[in-house]
Amino acid sequence: MTAMRKALLGGVLAAALVTGTAAVPAAAAPPEADLAHHGHLSLMDGRLGVRLVSENHGPSDVRQATVRLAFSEPMAGGQELPPVCLWSSDRVVSCRTGGLRAAGAVGELALDLRTAGRPDEVAVDIRTAWRDGVADPNPRNDRHQVLVLATGDPYVF
User: What separation in angstroms does the CA of 33 have from each of 36, 62, 63, 73?
Assistant: First the structure.
């Protein structure tokens, strides 16, 4: 390093120390992804069908995410769920999505649940509960509130 460069570098460092503006490396921003959940729900005779596809529109991959489904009515006890899901309460199910590659989709999650009674309607809140430290600047497409009437018709979200 030349004497001139050393003098310039020393002057910059001294000025930074005096003014308190020393260059500190910025913390790396978390990677970003755009998770989305889409599918349909149906209700008939106390049976609630859930078909859900989780996607990542990118730009970064997500190693793992969890989608939470909360129901306005309690579900009947003793129901088995797929291995990727668990009961948080009689009104909440949480399911792992698996890895979500940028600009990719994962397989469909299918649940066939029984309600505790035979309600005329069930409101379902669907949202990403966890995304493995990845930021999602567009959370609108991974949050849905769907009112499902007991008609057997599919309610698309």
Answer: 10, 7, 11, 32
SS3 at position 21:
coil
| Phi, then psi, of 19 in degrees rounded to 5 | -90, -10
The Cα–Cα gap between 141 and 33 comes to 12
Tell me the per-residue pLDDT of 66-116, one tens digit each, with 9 for 90 and over.
Answer: 999 999 999 999 999 999 999 999 999 999 999 999 998 788 999 999 999
Q: What CA–CA distance (Å, rounded) separates 32 from 45?
A: 42
Q: What angle do CA 65, 69, 71 make, to 5 degrees?
A: 170
Distance of CA 84 to the CA centre of its chain: 15
Residue 121 backbone class (left: φ over 0; alpha: ψ -120 to 50; beta: rest): beta
- DSSP assignment of 30-83 equals PPB--EEEEEEEEEETTEEEEEEEEEE-SSS-BS--EEEEEESSPBPTT----T
